[in-house]
Amino acid sequence: MDAEFVERLIRAVDESGIDTVEIRRGGTRVRISKTPPPAPVPTEAGAGPVAGAVESGASGDAASAAPAESTVAGDSAAREQPATTLIEIKSPMVGTFYRAGAPGAPPYVDTGQRISEGDTLCIIEAMKLMNEFESDISGTIEEILVEDGEPVEYGQVLFRVAPV
User: What's the CA gap between 67 and 84, in Å, rounded?
Assistant: First the structure.
């Protein structure tokens, strides 16, 4: 792909109603999106607010930074703790949500599964294009909020992830 082709593609996306387009040719992959990427996850407790995080007023101290250790103990306060740290992963576009790459194939992720940054979470079909949606964070899938084949809206919460 040459620079002129990419520039024409950018103009076409900008002038159309399309939010995101991804093209692969050979070993080259280009993704153009009108929407900003999801906010990065802070690496330290109290590093600042996270867009899309489910918060319940946690102060960001060391006790709230280690909910996984408390959960193992099984006390009732620990069971409430993870809800304060779940990150919501939202749809970057309008389309149809698919959990697997093909009908009958195993889903990309399941509840309770550990994911890493760059792992494929799902496919969102938009205008006959299959867009693989990759994770920007590492963690554990706590909830999958959309059923396979269901239509999704831009900004709709698809997954809730407990970051590591």
Answer: 9
How far is Cα 47 from Cα 149, in angstroms, rounded to an integer? 37
C-alpha neighbours within 13 Å on the C-beta side of residue 113: 13
Q: Contact 71/79 with Cβ under 8 angstroms?
A: yes
Q: 97 is written with which tokens?
A: 């949500």
Place of tokens 């600042």: 48
The Cα angle at residue 110 between residues 56 and 133, in degrees rounded to 5: 85
Q: Where are the domains of the chain?
A: 1-34
pLDDT tens digits, 62-74: 444 444 444 444 4
CA-to-CA dists, residue 61 to 29, 65, 68, 86, angstroms: 41, 6, 15, 16
Of the candidates 62, 57, 88, 63, the residue with the CA atom closest to the CA atom of residue 75 = 63
